[in-house]
Design brief:
- Helix content is 33%, strand content 28%.
- It is of the alpha+beta class.
- The strands form 2 sheets. The protein has a 5-stranded antiparallel β-sheet. Strands 3-8-5-6 form a 4-stranded antiparallel β-sheet, with no helix packed on it.
- A hairpin with a 2-residue loop joins β5 and β6.
- The N and C termini lie far apart (39 Å).
Length: 146
């Protein structure tokens, strides 16, 4: 079962720096964001999010790895610096896939409400997310056209 853990703020900032969608943020902005996140630990094999469940926020992988799955089919493997759950920030639709921890993992979780509170004062974060959403959509379109 997932559990909240304490994580020094300086280490949270170091890990957030490695997340692609946050690469445009300054040290000061990352320190500000670190105050909004909750750090959660998952055991190997534990389900982080379940397809069809309501989504509450964005997950950023700080340590460990996870796999995005639909049924028994693996869709993507994610590691340190990657993220999932970004669509939840923009709509109220249920989760579109399961995500399972492949190894013991630590994730930063930010709820959509906390994210938008941060984005209102630091809109730079939106560009990183929109760029990644666009990249993922292009990859999906390419895969579907093959």
């Amino acid at each position: 079962m997932a559990r909240s853990i304490e994580f020094p703020a300086s280490q949270i900032v170091e890990r957030l720096e490695k997340v692609s969608i946050l690469s445009r943020l300054s040290q000061g902005q990352l320190k500000k964001l670190a105050k909004w996140v909750k750090i959660v630990a998952y055991a190997e094999g534990e389900t982080i999010v379940k397809r069809g469940a309501g989504g509450l926020g964005l997950f950023l992988i700080l340590d460990g790895s996870a796999e995005v799955r639909r049924g028994s089919r693996g869709l993507a493997k994610l590691g340190v610096g990657q993220f999932f759950g970004e669509m939840t920030l923009f709509d109220d639709q249920p989760r579109s896939a399961d995500v399972v921890a492949l190894t013991p993992s630590k994730l930063a979780v930010i709820s959509k409400w906390e994210f938008w509170g941060f984005a209102e004062t630091e809109p730079t974060v939106l560009r990183g997310i929109l760029e990644e959403l666009s990249r993922r959509l292009r990859e999906t379109n390419q895969a579907l056209s093959e």
